[in-house]
Amino acid sequence: MQYDEVMIRYGELSTKGKNKRIFISQLAQNVKFALSDFEELKVHGERDRMHLELNGADSDAVLERLRSIFGIQTYSPVRRLERDIELVKKVAVEMIKELYSEGKTFKIATRRSDHDYELDTNDMNQLLGAEIFSQIEGIKVHMKKPDITLRVEIRKEGFFLSSKTILGAGGLPVGSSGKGMLMLSGGIDSPVAGYLTMKRGVTVEAVHFHSPPYTSPRALQKAKDLAAKLAAFSGSVQFIEVPFTEIQEEIKKIVPEGYLMTVTRRLMMRLTDRIREERKGLAIINGESLGQVASQTLHSMIAINDVTATPIIRPVVSMDKNEIIEIAQKIDTFELSIQPFEDCCTIFAPPAPKTQPKLEKAREYESRLDVEGLIERAMYGLVITKITVGDTLEAQQKADFSSLL
Ligand code: ATP
Ligand code: MG
């Protein structure tokens, strides 16, 4: 069925008091951005609801696109009709038939914002109810828990009918909680951490460390492909590549084996924090999960977190691997994440990193390096790319190919 409008309900947003206006305008902006290729579409962000006027845009495509926008609790496609009661009856029957199968119950729920209209809500419920009974054999009404609810709104501009409520992505509109730097590896955990933080309204920029020639271009591309998956939730993601080869080689040369991992992580954290400062981010996000590997014990966190006072958000810290994988599957990053490409951390990793590194030792070993010089050179080599939805390797190859024609 082709619809005329979509009605969006805010859910959690409605409880946000003063900030509500900011949330609504951020959401309206995100919705416009996500649907910018539908030029005919009009977005009206009102206090309690948002209305999208489709003006002929393909409603199935619009409904699908709305699924991944945070800040939407539920939404309903709506038919907008002339004030012609015969037409309303006909469409009401069509809409219920679309959802009906034997044994299902229904109810009509009318709201009237135009109080001058000759029928009141009761009249309307009864009129349409009677029509449904006469046209759909065997259907029963159920007031408390109907399977199908047909909502009818009587407004000055016409009749508005909806019968479906689709669950939105929940959360808060991306951008309404500021910006954070996601440490994005090619693994399973960090994309999930990014997704969960975006869900709470944070604009995420991806920071990825790579160490050519020890890590391949394919490993870098994998991280970019993951960023493209995350871009589905915000339209685009800034992807920041950090050249990490010199730092890893230096650490390998100078730091005792038991502390290679801890010092490497300290440098990653320092660099991410420097990037955050330059780009006016407010937090760092990573995919650490407590106890998963040696770098993710509480002792390690103390030794690594020591380099900054910036809030570190660890959305998956208390999750089991299965729980993380379940989310990775839902957001379609899992298959990409399990592709076997070497990560810069694993290549230089000693066989047995310390699970209980001492803070004093970590500091002492790190001080043997020219930390500032290393950081400056890495900062000088940053490469920043804007990644948009669908910006995968395949898409890029196609783009390259077409430019040759
Ligand atoms: P992931 O599945 O996210 O790779 P992991 O369980 O493999 O996590 P580690 O490899 O120890 O754990 O990494 C812990 C966290 O450090 C990652 O979740 C990520 O946030 C960050 N990290 C690791 N490697 C990189 C990298 N090459 N670039 C950016 N961040 C990284
Ligand atoms: Mg990893």
UniProtKB/TrEMBL annotation:
Residues 60-165 form the THUMP domain. It comes from the Bacteria. Transmembrane segments: none annotated. SMART domains: THUMP (SM00981). Pathway: Cofactor biosynthesis; thiamine diphosphate biosynthesis. It catalyses: [ThiS sulfur-carrier protein]-C-terminal Gly-Gly-AMP + S-sulfanyl-L-cysteinyl-[cysteine desulfurase] + AH2 = [ThiS sulfur-carrier protein]-C-terminal-Gly-aminoethanethioate + L-cysteinyl-[cysteine desulfurase] + A + AMP + 2 H(+); [ThiI sulfur-carrier protein]-S-sulfanyl-L-cysteine + a uridine in tRNA + 2 reduced [2Fe-2S]-[ferredoxin] + ATP + H(+) = [ThiI sulfur-carrier protein]-L-cysteine + a 4-thiouridine in tRNA + 2 oxidized [2Fe-2S]-[ferredoxin] + AMP + diphosphate. Pfam families: ThiI, ThiI_fer, THUMP. It is found in: Cytoplasm. Keywords: ATP-binding, Cytoplasm, Nucleotide-binding, RNA-binding, Thiamine biosynthesis, Transferase, tRNA-binding. Its main location: cytoplasm. Its EC number is 2.8.1.4. The keyword Lyase does not apply. InterPro entries: Rossmann-like_a/b/a_fold (IPR014729), ThiI_AANH (IPR020536), ThiI_fer (IPR054173), ThiI_N (IPR049961), THUMP_dom (IPR004114), THUMP_ThiI (IPR049962), tRNA_STrfase (IPR003720), tRNA_sulfurtransferase_ThiI (IPR050102). ATP binds at M183, L184, H208, F209, R265, G287, Q296. HAMAP family: ThiI. Catalyzes the ATP-dependent transfer of a sulfur to tRNA to produce 4-thiouridine in position 8 of tRNAs, which functions as a near-UV photosensor. Also catalyzes the transfer of sulfur to the sulfur carrier protein ThiS, forming ThiS-thiocarboxylate. This is a step in the synthesis of thiazole, in the thiamine biosynthesis pathway. The sulfur is donated as persulfide by IscS. Belongs to the ThiI family. This is Probable tRNA sulfurtransferase. It comes from Carnobacterium inhibens. The gene is thiI.
